[in-house]
Write a structure and sequence with these properties.
single chain, about 260 residues, alpha+beta, 3 helices, membrane, transmembrane, transmembrane helix
């Protein structure tokens, strides 16, 4: 082989290598360069998937544990806290979080299960007002649907307003519905394996509780101070019961008698 032939072969190999590299890359760019053209995948593995509008506004994030967003940003201010779970987050038109789904579960070396799942929807600029939960820890588990009230002001505005408040002031603000969540309704199973329906007033004070288990089924009504004043049900001996109680929890006669 002459020097000229060798030089020609080298040039050919270089051109072949360049073409072999550029053609797949060019095809890939064309495939992703046309957003309106559907692309079908049989299977895809990804650590995080961001669903965005054309202008880049995030609408949904599906992520593993490592890449899951930490904390939350409301009104341009970030509240930092850890969220060590995989899951899914929903975002509103402002690009702010408005709900999501997290889940996890494991068994330790002693065989004890620690697991849970949580799906929630948030009030605009605030925290969760609808939440579907499952939690299991130490051999006990509970599951249920909770409805909450949340303040009208945004999470960051509330945090700024009460950051220097005393514990007493924060407690009063929470009773007034201006700080944190107020649970209004829970329906589900308790850690004691009872079925329960619990209703509360605007201050978060329980006003009605329906509980059913193998021992009894009872419907209790509380006054504005959280004291049970009326109890209706069937006891563990399958006998019906009706009790009127005074403010000290002692049996009393109905009003007017």
């Amino acid at each position: 082989m002459t020097v000229q032939q060798l030089a020609r072969d080298v040039k050919f190999l270089k051109a072949y290598a360049l073409a072999a590299t550029l053609l797949p890359v060019t095809g890939l760019l064309f495939a992703f360069g046309k957003p309106d053209k559907p692309v079908r995948f049989g299977e895809i593995s990804v650590e995080r998937l961001n669903l965005v509008e054309r202008d880049g506004t995030v609408k949904m994030i599906l992520s593993n544990q490592e890449r899951f967003p930490q904390g939350v940003t409301i009104d341009g201010k970030h509240l930092d806290y850890k969220r060590p779970h995989p899951g899914m987050l929903f975002y509103n038109a402002k690009g702010e979080e408005c709900g999501g789904l997290i889940f996890d579960g494991n068994r330790d070396q002693d065989g004890k299960v620690s697991a849970g799942g949580h799906f929630s929807l948030d009030r605009f600029g605030q925290d969760q007002v609808v939440a579907l939960n499952y939690q299991e820890q130490g051999g006990f588990y509970k599951a249920g649907l909770t409805f909450n009230d949340a303040p009208e002001e945004s999470t960051t505005a509330v945090a700024e307003k009460y950051k220097a408040a005393t514990p007493e002031q924060k407690q009063q603000a929470q009773k007034d519905g201006k700080l944190g969540l107020q649970t209004r309704l829970f329906v589900g199973t308790t850690a004691g394996r009872s079925s329960a329906l619990i209703m509360a007033d605007q201050r978060g004070e329980t006003r009605m509780m329906l509980v059913a288990n193998t021992e009894q089924s009872t419907l209790d009504f509380q006054d504005s101070q959280g004291r049970t004043r009326l109890s209706i049900g069937v006891d563990k001996n399958n006998q019906p019961m009706l009790r009127f109680l005074d403010e000290n929890g002692q049996p009393s006669k109905p009003a007017g008698q």
